[in-house]
Description:
alpha+beta
Amino acid sequence: MSEVSLVPMSERAFRAFLHAAVENYAEENVSAGRWLAEGALERSQAAFAQLLPQGTATPDHHLFEIVAGDAGVVGSLWYGVYSEGEQRQVHVYDVLVYPAHRRRGYAAAAFAAMEAQVRALGIDRIGLHVFAHNAGAQALYARLGYLTTSLNMIKVLGS
């Protein structure tokens, strides 16, 4: 694997990212049983509009393309900086490695590059959410040292 860098997203790349991310978030919430399929896309669009009202210029949000040497753009990463009391933290909103580039270490390398940026901001905490059905992502985050801090559960009652 070649070296990975995080390159700020262009407006063109952001439009493609947003389209795919909105659809993916809707699908993930439906798969997790959190949302009904009907209206899921609209709910996802509303969530993204609230989080990124100014697109790539939204304050405290950092959107990148993951670039890996000769392979070019292999995915994307989005994180935001927020404060909880006196503690500044980062939340990873989205990370995606395109299917043709998976299982090559690009996500782990992107996280390492992000961690360097976060340290440079003087922040020492990174959080993220992962859907329970995404065992591959959970395994990656565990290998990278992320710990489970809470767990949401649901029971669907039959009729």
